[in-house]
Write a structure and sequence with these properties.
The structure holds two protein chains of two kinds.
Chain A: E1 19-22, H1 28-39, H2 44-54, E2 61-68, E3 71-81, E4 90-98, H3 107-121, E5 127-129, H4 136-144
Parallel strand pairs in A: 4-5
Antiparallel strand pairs in A: 1-2, 2-3, 3-4
Chain B: H1 5-19, H2 27-33, H3 38-50, E1 54-57, E2 63-66, H4 75-79, H5 109-133, H6 136-149
Helix pairs in contact in B: 1-3, 1-6, 2-3
The chains are: A alpha+beta, B mainly alpha.
């Protein structure tokens, strides 16, 4: 989600022009559009619920957007989770996305840094995420940001 | 997934070259650094050269230089040149292995083999996903971070 589809195309803006801030209700349509561009699904109801739960600058929950030239270029969402499965409180990123035509411009890096700062201010010093092992693009992005395998193993079973 | 010596040597080499892409590295220098025979290394470099990851530079001051894209090239791209990374071979179809059936309520050998195969495949898939997600540029950053930590 971080790479441009066509290599060699310069990003639509310089990284310095990107501003990361808390989401506003008026941003939601563009957030839905970015998600739909990548997943092929428009999920209005889901995003309205995410905005309700994570918008509004809470201490433990963060929904940030990257804006450049009046356009939302990407978003990141996460929260501080306390003592799950014996883990000390840590910051969980459960969504990060950048417009396909704005990738490779440092937007994803800025978003991850910003949510990392928010987590630090909330008193945690570890950032975690989980994603499909087939999602090489995002895995490579997180790896490029210095993330390593966590001391957990995700498990599942058919019900 | 256990990597063969050649594969590990290929990873050392491309990382060495990618760390200084403008520089020509002599095979003897890399062989000395990683304590391997120059002859052994030459074979590995030939494979890397054929894949377009390194380029041989002839003449005085010649050697090898990195010819790939460190931000795109993953550890798996290098590993695949030296290893057969297809799914681990499982024993033949169940029907063909039914000869040795369960005894006294114990699992038949093929059932144990199947179950162990599932676990080994799981481990293998995680290893592959890890190698696919790490580019040479990310590895070089990791080296830097570890060096800074001391």
């Amino acid at each position: 989600m971080i790479y441009r589809k066509k290599s060699g195309i310069p990003p639509a803006h310089e990284p310095g022009e990107v501003r990361v801030r808390g989401v506003l209700p008026g941003d939601l349509e563009q957030v839905i559009e970015i998600d739909a561009l990548v997943t092929g699904l428009r999920k209005e109801g889901y995003w309205a619920e995410i905005l309700r739960r994570y918008g509004g600058g809470r201490r433990q929950r963060h929904f940030l957007v990257a804006e450049a030239g009046g356009r939302i270029e990407g978003y990141v969402i996460g929260e501080v989770r306390d003592w799950e499965f014996g883990s000390a409180p840590c910051g969980w990123v459960f969504a990060i996305n950048v417009r396909p035509d704005a990738r490779l411009g440092g937007v994803g890096t800025r978003l991850l840094e910003a949510i990392g700062d928010s987590f630090r201010r909330a008193g945690v010093s570890k950032l975690r995420t989980i994603l499909s092992r087939d999602n090489q693009l995002i895995l490579s992005f997180f790896r490029s940001q210095g993330m390593m395998a966590a001391p957990f193993i995700p498990l599942e079973k058919d019900l | 997934m256990k990597l063969q010596k050649n594969t590990v040597l290929a990873l050392y080499s491309v990382l060495e070259f990618a760390a200084n892409p403008g520089r020509h590295h002599s095979a003897a220098e890399v062989a000395r650094k990683y304590r391997v025979s120059p002859h052994h290394l030459a074979k590995v470099l030939r494979t890397l050269g054929r894949a377009g990851l390194v380029q041989a530079v002839r003449g005085v001051g010649g050697g090898y230089r990195f010819a790939g894209n460190a931000k795109r090239l993953t550890l798996m791209d290098v590993i695949e040149l030296f290893e057969d990374i297809s799914a681990p071979r499982r024993a033949g179809p169940r029907a063909a292995r039914r000869g040795a059936g369960p005894e006294q309520g114990l699992a038949a050998p093929f059932e144990v083999e199947d179950a162990l195969g599932v676990v080994l495949k799981e481990i293998d898939e995680i290893a592959k996903a890890t190698f696919r997600s790490i580019t040479l540029a990310t590895m070089l950053k990791l080296v830097e971070r570890r060096r800074a930590r001391g």
